[in-house]
Amino acid sequence: MLLFSLGASAQKLHGKVVDSTNGQPIPGAIIYFPQLKLGTTTDANGHFTMTSIPYGSYEMEVQILGYATLTKQITINDSTTCNCKMCNMAGCNMNEVVITALGNITSTQRSPTPVSIVTHDMLMQNSYGTIIDAISTQPGVSMTTEGPGTTKPQINGLGFDRVLVLTDGLRQEDFQWGDDHGILIDPYSIYDAEIIRGPASLQYGASAEAGVISFKTQPFAENGTTQGSVLTEYQTNNGYIGTSEDIGENHNGFAWDLRASNEEAHDYWDPKDGYVWGTAWRQDNGRLTLGLTKSWGYSRISVSLLERRIEVPDGNRDSTGRFIYDAPQNGQAYPGTGDFLAYNPTIAGDKILDEIQTWWQNSFNAGKGKVGLDIGFTQSIHHDIDTGTVGSGNFHVQDIPYSLKYQVVGENSGLKLTTGINGTYEFESNYAEPPAPYIGDYEIPNYTDLQAGGYAILEEDHKNLTLSGGLRYDYNNFIGQSMYLLNAGTPEQQSFSDSIPNSVKQFQGFNNVYTGVSGSVGVSYQLPDNNYLKLNVSKSFRAPSIDELYSNGVNIGVNAFQEGNLNLKAEEGYQVDFAYGNNGKDVNFEADGFCNLINNFIFPVRVQSKVSGDSMVDGVPYYEYIANKAIIAGFSGYFNIHPSDTRWLEVDNNFTYVYSFFPNQTDSTQHVPWTPAPRLTTEIKLKLTDRKKSILKGTYIEFGMAKYWAQNAIYSALYSELPSLAYTLFNAGVGTNFVNPGTGRVLCSFYINCTNLLNIGYADHLNLAQYFLAYNGSPVTVTQQSQGIYNMGRNVGFKLLFPIGGHKISEEESKPTEQ
Q1: Burial of 689 (0-12, 13-18, 19+ CB in 10 A)
Q2: What Cα–Cα distance (Å) separates residue 388 from each residue in 81, 150, 163, 351?
Q3: Residues 758, 730: Cα–Cα separation, whole Å
Q4: Closest C-alpha to 335, from 389, 282, 267, 388
């Protein structure tokens, strides 16, 4: 970084932001470059200045409350002037925002596939435990869960490693294939998110078969400032306590940001179960980002250390339905009030999940284009601890992700090209056998997985027409090691890589190669009166995951014995997406339809016993992975009302419906497992008018409803899946900013949010904990929804945010005020 900075001249961007109607300056407008994580704000006279911006063309956003977001493409030279006229909400449409997750920089309205934006304000104004909770009510998005800390996203009815999750472009490979492994991300480190619904994201490859969720962390501080924040949060239901401190600085192109977060919660409560034994959890995270931005481009490196310790409930009860210990503790058979309220996830069966990440991102100017070079290292560590302090299931997964890409925009044609290669090298190892009396549980073999892909994406913007498309070729090589067990299933168990006398084969060695082509062609067209159309046709490819290929053991987290299938073929999907929308000044809406045909769709099923009913192994149900042709279709969309003449009112609605089936199957096996129930959400927000000398600004009150219909289209064979009941949840919230009336600076932001306001007892269809039931330690097949574990009851969250620093004396402020 020091070598790159030598001799680099400082580029300067300056300009003024004014109201398009009356020409008055707009103070406090945010100027932001998403690619660079850099931004600034306008001063009292509407002026702004930015230095140390790399040469080249970038998408720039200008945002401020009460005005439509302005997007412009800016070419940075030694000194660049950019004056902006912003349209008041009362006189223009809402406009769109810049998105970066598709590879080419584009906007939501010109993207050929449906894209949802989760803003920073949306994250701040809601209460949630994990970052997946926070986005799970977006159109087309849902989540599976086995309790707090185990949430996994779904897009258009597909989840697990069919959905690619990114943090600042880094793939989250933290046990993505496992039901009981949540996405290991600190929610306080996330600033906003982009969600691509559909397999058009060729830049990311096979894991993006259903779509991409791209999380982004805090932007760097404005040049010449030190800024940060202190956040504290409390939630009543499970006593959740969250704290996060952030501090960062930016000086002449060198920036850094440091964040430390802690979360902890005791067991949650619901109206049906009372306190649910085994749902306490805690998480700690530290994250440091360093960045250098100069005329040649930028270089950033991020390091994150995260530990999550969670209990996974097993539903163990006595004959009266009361939760009971798996084994007596201190002479007691039942957890008491102190146990339920303890911030200690080690007093029941729990997991330790560690995530270590290092991610180095670079962008260099190369003629009229840019070359991106990224490389990283991640390590995910897993320990299953049933009793005591020693794990029975212990392994770690390490990844080396890499990316090399070239991007260029034609000066006259506007043609955008992105091409490159990327992938990851993954290697997993089981830990050594734990000491007696503990018995090692080996679910998957030691393996390596080399993923590599090359792609090219083209996009061209005309006045009203955007055309885009591309191709990708993927190579995936799994190599698994053999494992043999001596004295299997006893405290004297030992593992060996080769067969020895009296040993039992746990895994055989294998070497599987998968190759495939994916591609997409899309178009969006801007119609008169702010209407627009989108159409995208795509082909996807996904190689089987390691658990689908060769799991062979009891998965403690899901109370099941799972067996893989080395003969599985890669999935190939063919999807059509169509959307129609309007982006008007009073109303904006979008209706999205899709149909996805997937060959060799892989899923687990319970195995039929040779005697009767489903088979059991080691006291738990036995599953194996099979494949079939699947058809998944659906509709999602939103309809938002924001009257330009009634700016204190906003009404947001979104709807999701997904239907799935396997052709030529029986009634009990004709639907794809874990298809989400239809959902309608409505939120009404009332915004108070700000007064010039008031100490309260941005005050709002909101009321929400989420209606979930019953889901009867299920894979019901051998009670693999249960029908779910309909339910309706109500929510409410209020928030405001306390400001210094003299300077207008925010001193503190305060939010209250209540979920499940009426304290409804319900079990979401994708709540897999509803299948957890045992009597005095013996697992029982759940045959009706009321037997399992319900979702959380009423929960009230309180959140305080104190900003720190961020103020500088600009050149404009030191000058006399313009007349």
Answers
A1: exposed
A2: 66, 22, 35, 12
A3: 7
A4: 267
Residues linked to residue 373 through DSSP beta bridges, in sequence order:
362, 404
Q: What is the pLDDT of residue 613?
A: 62
Q: Which of 505, 809, 596, 486 is nearest to 113 (CA)?
A: 596
Strands 12-19 and 79-81: parallel
In the chain, % of residues over pLDDT 70: 92
Q: What is the mean pLDDT of the chain?
A: 88
Q: How far apart are CA 505 and CA 485, in angstroms?
A: 6
Which of 478, 480, 505 has its CA nearest to residue 569? 478
Three-state DSSP state, 339: helix
Cα 806 from Cα 801, distance rounded (Å): 15
d(CA 350, CA 321): 22
The residue written with tokens 């979104």 in the block is 654
Which amino acid is located at 337 in the chain? T
Q: Which residues pair with 179 in a beta bridge?
A: none
Tens-digit pLDDT profile for residues 464-500 = 999 999 999 999 999 999 999 999 988 899 999 999 9
Does the pLDDT value for residue 39 go beyond 50?
A: yes
Per residue in 203-225, pLDDT (tens digit) is 887 788 999 999 999 999 988 89
CA angle 604, 606, 612 (to 5 degrees): 165
CA nearest 478: which of 562, 550, 400? 550
Q: What is the helix (H) or strand (E) element at residue 548, kind and residue range? A: helix 546-550
512 three-class SS: strand
